[in-house]
Amino acid sequence: MLKNLTKILLPIFATSLFVEFYEGEKEVYIASFLLLALLFAFQKNITQNDIVFSFEDTSFNKWAIGFWILLVLFFNLILQNKLLNFETITWDVPSYLVASQEIGLGNLPLETQWESKGPMLLYIYYFISELVDKNYIYFRIFNDFILFISIFLIYKIVNKTTNNSSLKSVLSMFIFTLLVSFEWFISEFSEIYCLIILGLIYLVFENVDNVSVKHFLIGILISISTLINQGTIIFIFPYLIVSLYRNKFKNFKTTFLMLPGFLIPHTLFLVIYSSREC
């Protein structure tokens, strides 16, 4: 039991030390200590339910999957909230929050002031802000759970691409959680929302059998992502290239169904803004 726990905890603790030396933040040590304490406190229950890695076939049982995912959520909340006492970490988030409040006044995003991101980001900010009754602390905590969706998608993608290796999948979740604990990658940035969409795009690309539906859905999802952060347009090109390669550069019709899917959300926003003569 101890040997198995050591195998999984050593990489996590080593990554924690890296973050600690890079930032000098004691919260990383605290999170690692709490993780270790929790594991050993429930050592008996863990053993009885076999909530450990089976390193022979690198697989989990159902208890283990839920156990480690909850630990990652716990780990994520601690690391993301280490800067909760600072009102302003970067200018981006307060700026987008202020801009999003124009929606509540009956204006469209970007109608009265310019921002570097797309209109969907301001709608997301406004929706979350209203959901938490415009409480900035609750707003940041709510976004920690949105970040966790990205972390869970990483688990699903790595699990699929490594032939169901739960060891690699869980380690990927922990490592990503530690990487986004830096103050310059807090969970309210537009990239976090886009990461969820990009993760869904990959799952659609690999799991949807109907080629026409697959490319149409990818087009819609990429379009929504660009309405949050315009830079994500570059991610459409790998899917175009891979799709054409798989079709041996013959069946262009189904591949380019991404285009009408991409145009639908953008056309909708163009119609809305045109109706307001923006």
What's the topology here?
Elements: H1 2-23, H2 26-41, H3 43-48, H4 62-80, H5 92-100, H6 119-131, H7 136-161, H8 166-179, H9 190-207, H10 211-228, H11 236-246, H12 252-255, H13 258-275
Helix pairs in contact: 1-2, 1-8, 2-4, 4-7, 4-8, 5-6, 6-10, 7-8, 7-9, 9-10, 10-13
Short description:
With 278 residues, the chain is mainly alpha-helical. The chain has helices spanning 2-23, 26-41, 43-48, 62-80, 92-100, 119-131, 136-161, 166-179, 190-207, 211-228, 236-246, 252-255, 258-275.
Anisotropy-based shape? flat
**How many H/I helical runs?**
13
Intertermini distance: 64 Å
Number of strands: 0
The fraction of residues assigned to DSSP E strands is: under 5%
Class by alpha and beta content: mainly alpha
Query: How large, in whole angstroms, is the Cα Rg?
Result: 21 Å
Q: Note poorly predicted spans.
A: 43-60
Number of domains: 2
Major β-sheet profile: none
- Give the SSE string: HHHHHHHHHHHHH
Specify the helix fraction band: 55-70%
The whole-number mean of residue pLDDT values reads 77
